[in-house]
Amino acid sequence: RPRSHTVTTTSSSFTANLSASSSTLAYDREFLRTLPGLLMVTEIVLGLLVWTLIAGTEYFLYPAFGWVMFVAVFYWVLTIFFLIIYMTMTYTRIPQVPWTTVGLCFNGSAFILYLIAAIVDASSVTKELDSHNYNSWAASSFTQNKITSCYAGNTYFSFISWRSRTLQ
Fold first, then answer.
1. Distance (Å, rounded) from C-alpha 133 to C-alpha 44?
2. Topologically, how does it sit relative to the membrane (predicted)?
3. pLDDT (tens digit, 9 = 90+) per residue, 5-48?
C-alpha cells in the first residue's frame, strides 16, 4: 500500500521582517572626531583608570571607596554601551526612544554621581587611614575630578542637543 506524503510550507511575517531589518549596521567614523565623541572616549579611559586604581587596594574595608568603585564601574560600562550605540548608529534604528532625553539623563546623572563620588573620594584620602593605599587613592581622586569635568561637558552638549530637539 503506497503512502502519500504531503509537505506544507508556510511563510511567517516575522522571518520576512527579520530578514528585511537585519542589514549591516552603519559605522559612524566621524563621531570620534566630534567633541562629545572625544569626551566619551576620555571618560572611558579615565573611568577605567579610576576603578583600577581603587580595585588594586583594600577598598572593601572602607565604605566610601565602595561607593566610588560602584560609580566608576557602573558609568564605565554604560559609557561603553552608549559609545557602541553612537558608533553603530543604532539610535537611528530605534526612533521610538527619545535619544536626546536619554543622553541628557545619562550624562547629567553621571556628572552628579561622579561629583559626589569625587568629593567622597577626596575627603576620604588621608595618610592616617591606610598609608599603603594612599597614592592609589590620591591618584583616583585626581582622576575623578578630571572625569567629572568630562561628564559635565557632555551634559552641556546633551542639553544643547535636547533643547534644539524640543524647540522644533
1. 23
2. Multi-pass membrane protein
3. 555 444 444 344 434 444 566 788 888 999 999 999 999 999 99
Phi, psi torsion values for 30, nearest 5 degrees = -75, -20
Listed residue (2, 146, 131, 137) closest to 59, CA to CA? 137
Burial class from Cβ neighbours inside 10 Å (0-12, 13-18, 19+) for residue 85 reads middle
Separation between Cα atoms, residue 45 and residue 145, nearest integer Å: 14
pTM score, whole prediction: 0.79
Q: What amino acid is encoded at 47 in this protein?
A: G
Q: What is the DSSP letter of 88?
A: T
